[in-house]
Amino acid sequence: MSEIDLTRAETHFAFGRNWASYAQSVAEAEIKEAEAGLLRLLGGEPPRGTRFLDIGSGSGLHSLAALRLGASHVHAVDIDEDSVATTRALLSRFAHDRDWQAVHASVFELTPEGLGEFDLVYSWGVLHHTGDLNRAVRCAARLVRPGGLFLFALYRRVWADFFWRFEKRWYAKASPAAQARARAVYTALFRMWFRLTGRRFDDYQAGYCSNRGMEFQHDVHDWMGGWPYESVAPEEVEDLMRPLGFERVRSFVGRGRFFGRYTGIFGSGCDEFVYRRV
Fold first, then answer.
1. Please, what's the b/e burial string for 149-177 (b: 16 or more CB within 10 A of its CB; e: otherwise)?
2. Do 129 and 106 meet the contact criterion of CB atoms below 8 Å apart?
3. For residues 46 and 208, which has the higher predicted lDDT (pLDDT)?
């Protein structure tokens, strides 16, 4: 029996449906949060006049943030057709007069010969779901122009990775009813942990906003279904990027919202990286 090719779209969790559901609630507050997150990665410098590539655009929220912060052109791509449709709808709603494209494509299909090079290449929480993380990083990196920036976030490696790989593979194929039961169990355990540590889960959930802008329940579905799943240690990222001709500008490591930076009992947060092509 041949091994399943995890880089093919049909083997992936249907992220796009979740993004489509979330995008209906996007308003000014969510857009401002996305703008703040992008500015933090850029060291406070708006991307004015830049060509911006968004790999794995999801809802299109960060493509929108780049346009509102002054990017001259945004090219958004996603392997999930529902995500492409959602990105187009969101940008048509909030940035209909700006210069942008949203297309259906895999990161493995993108080439500088076909697209050109970009001042900023952005991929938040995406490349670890491609089925081949290292190759995906290399493919994305070659689209950065000399002197340009590569902004990306990857799941950090945690002790519980073996469990989450099993869980995600199951969840991605489970029925909607089974998925709902699994989310209910996860949320109940999360609520119990808050009670044991003397905190109020309801306050946490009410004020919740992830780095990609999602609210809590959409984010739980996104986390539990994220298959394929890979993770990486920060030093491995450095070892991957240096031979490609990149130097680290800044990083935000170990800042995830989930309990257990190294154990990953409730999940693995993303480490964020900014590299410059030199």
1. bbbbbbbbbbebbeebeebbbebbeeeee
2. no
3. 46
Structural domains of the chain in order of their starting residue, each with its CATH number: 9-158+229-277 (3.40.50.150), 161-225 (no CATH)
Give, as one character, the DSSP assignment of residue 3.
Answer: P
Round to whole Å and give the CA distance between 126 and 118: 18
Residue 229, burial from CB neighbour count under 10 angstroms (0-12, 13-18, 19+): buried
- Are 120 and 47 in contact by the 8 Å Cβ rule? The answer is yes
How many other CB atoms are there within 10 angstroms of residue 201's CB atom?
Answer: 16
Contacts (Cβ under 8 Å, ≥6 apart) of 204: 194, 216
- Among 277, 226, 118, residue whose Cα is nearest residue 218: 226
63-91 tens-digit pLDDT:
999 999 999 999 999 999 999 999 999 99
- CA-CA distance, 60 to 187, in Å (whole number)? 27
